[in-house]
Amino acid sequence: MKHVSGLVSGFFTGSLRQALSLLCGTAVSASLFAASAQAATPVKVTLNAPFDGSNAAFFLAQQKGYYTAEGLTVQFDPSGGSGEVATRIGSGAYDFGFGDVNVLMEFNSKNPTAAGKAVYMLYYRSPLSVASFAKSGITKPADLNGRKLGGALSDGAYKLFPAYAEQAGVKSDTVKWEYGDLRLREVMLLKGDVDAVVGFDSTMYFSFVRQGIKPEDIKFLYYSDVGLDIYGNGIVVSKKMLDTNPAAIKGFVAATAKGWRDAVANPAAAIAALKAATPLIDEKLETEKLMWLIKNQIVTPESRADGLGGVRAERMNKGIDTLTKAFALPVKPKLEDVFTSAYLPSADIRKLP
């Protein structure tokens, strides 16, 4: 009986020990999880436009847990264009942005103490353009002289129009302007209030198609066609973040790069993630918009050869020269004042699928 009693006692003692061990392990795991949650860094991100196909890759990265894996909790907000992105980044109200690096360069020249930087390039061909309908007869830059154009004050296309006019020989002082919110810009042309509007080709094109305009009736004059061979949108970072949290920058860039890599490989998955965040989108139209951007802005001979994210110094410096003159900047920025490659992820993440 003593032997049996000892066995029973040992059984319950062992069971109790296992139970206590399990409870302690669970408590430790819970503590580690709580500590991990507490350690997550919250960041605010201002996107390039309202939530649409052009920024769907960010939502795909979020849905796949790429930001969480980097210890980040991310808040995305829409914007009225690259001008607003630059202002938000410059104020420090936002940590990251998706916007035109050239608009950021102009902002930095006027606000050097608040200067952010681009850290990951995405648009290797600038989508900046002048859009009109065939009936307007605008087929070349000179046809813009004396015309009325529409634009959004905060948009990169409006801010960079002087640079385009300089390169194209357009007489800027003869151009009349009507201004509207980025979301209402195309309405001015649809109503006949202006002869043309300036903006990103994809944004304007799909807005017009949504309103029933035939694709063959939509005409573009590209800023790049007159020698304005500049990079376009990329990931930009606030000075505050550059000064205080390089680890968060590296993590955010790596996570976003994975999102874009996946979006290029599977646009439908990116749009599904966008729809989960914004249920009222037109999936077909936003998919076409994303595919347009991939084909026309993201996948180029340069990005095929080098991978996404970086820039070529010679091309970037040429663009800085052009824009310094066009913006009448008092001091020409150095490349490292505009862009840094210090936070680029590994080549396998940057490689186009």
Overview of this protein structure:
- The structure is a single chain.
- Helices cover 51% and strands 14% of the residues.
- The chain starts with a helix and ends with a helix.
- Mean pLDDT is 89; it is low at 1-37.
- It has helices at residues 2-39, 56-63, 66-69, 82-91, 101-110, 156-159, 161-168, 185-190, 201-210, 239-244, 246-265, 267-277, 283-298, 301-306, 313-326, 335-338, 347-350; strands spanning 41-46, 72-77, 96-100, 117-121, 128-133, 148-151, 176-179, 196-200, 218-222, 233-237.
- The protein is built from 17 helices and 10 strands.
- It is of the alpha/beta class and 353 residues long.
- Strands 2-1-3-10-4 form a 5-stranded mixed beta sheet, sandwiched between helices. The chain has a 5-stranded mixed beta sheet with strand order 7-6-8-5-9.
- Helix 2 (56-63) crosses helix 11 (246-265), helix 7 crosses helix 15 and helix 11 packs across helix 12.
